[in-house]
Amino acid sequence: MSFKIFTIAIIFLVFVSFVPLDFADSQVAVIETKFGNMVMEFFPVDAPKTVENFINLTENGFYDGTKFHRIIPNFMIQGGDPLSKDDSLIQQWGTGSSNRTIEAEFNDIKHMRGIVSMARARDPNSASSQFFIVHKDSTFLDKQYTVFGRLITQESYDVLDSISSIGTNHNATSGMPLDAPLDLDSATIHSIKIKNLSEISDTLNLGEPERIISHSTFNEGNYSNTLYGFSFQAPKGWILQEPPKTQPQTPDVIVVDPQDKEFNAVIAFLIEDKNKTSLEQHVKDTRKNLQPIIDSGRLSILSEENKNLGGFNTHVTQAKGGFSVQDKIFIIKYKEIVFENDNKFYTITYTNQEKNFDSNLATFDNVLDSFEKSLKQKPESSYGDVISASDIGMNNIIIGIGVAIGAAVAIIVVIKRKKQVNKQKPESTNSS
């Protein structure tokens, strides 16, 4: 199962019972390799269970002789799979674990160079033993993977660069996993040892780790965003994520139904400044951007109308499209509502397979109802950067219903990639 993951906002708790404060302040992990040592400090306040798990595995010799089995320069190096101790099992590398999972401890530490974080599956609580070290700043991973440590010596970063430069496999038919190291000896973790910080003489003065600045909260299904002035009640059991703003039309918020193994229902929120544009003109601009997809036959508009919902001027559109991803065709249906309110357009789009569309329509209506009520309350807005992350790499999303198309196709790709390695995420293929 691909180590994919979706974003949720976390309220931080300091579980002193898990990691004594004197212990947390003084212990580090020393990762011994052919190129030298990488020294990692822990963040037990942010990820107490993960730190405890890593230290327990280390003290039992779990990582000794394993390899950095997945190396992607300018992204990350990944290790911690016990199967990588056996070269004859190379085709299975990336599928191993400690046979014990730990609960997610997503926090607000950014995935900057030198950060150490846990790989996991789509289930937020599926991290086990595999970890990755960030080679180049990768903040699109933020709040999706549990950050629990950071490299703290210059030698550590030099070793990280050396391991990242090891040649890797790029031939899908070679019998080796993609991005697996060609020089196995150079990728080997000789041992990991837990030592006292006082034993390390050359630590860098790094200060506090860089953290995310966020204007949103998500607690017990209640999402609120003070930057954009809205809130809503997410469906029970659905997972929320805030995609990075790679394009102006990238959704600002997405909630995903994780239950369906084949295709995930999605409700996406896009907030845009009106810039003195009328709702009518906004709809025309949207249609202009969608027209190439309509002309190609990939998308058909089923219905559209201007409507007053809860006192707001809205434009409601329903559409359907067929999309082929690898060897499977999905018939996808959309319902999109554009709210006009003060100086913003709020576009909310529900996406699902046509055969399952009606089954979640009431769920979508409940989300809309809670959203409408929040706009009526006119929450105070503030200004600043919203830094967030997404599990699905939405890099080709277009306006309006195109937002849903991009989200839907990206999620299909995520699901289909259970059978292949995704070069954009630190992941593994084991089921947990």
Key traits:
432 residues, alpha+beta, Cyclophilin, Protein Transport Mog1p, Chain A, 2 domains, eight-stranded antiparallel beta sheet, seven-stranded antiparallel beta sheet, 6 helices, 18% helix, elongated, disordered N terminus
Describe the protein:
- With 432 residues, this protein is α+β, with helices and mostly antiparallel strands.
- It folds into two domains: 191 residues, Beta Barrel (Cyclophilin); 202 residues, 3-Layer(aba) Sandwich (Protein Transport Mog1p, Chain A).
- It has six helices and 18 strands.
- The strands form three sheets. Strands 3-4-6-5-7-2-1-8 form an eight-stranded antiparallel β-sheet. The protein has a seven-stranded antiparallel β-sheet with strand order 12-13-14-18-17-16-15, with helices on both faces. The chain has a three-stranded antiparallel β-sheet with strand order 9-10-11.
- The longest helix has 17 residues.
- The radius of gyration is 23 Å and the shape is elongated.
- The termini are close together.
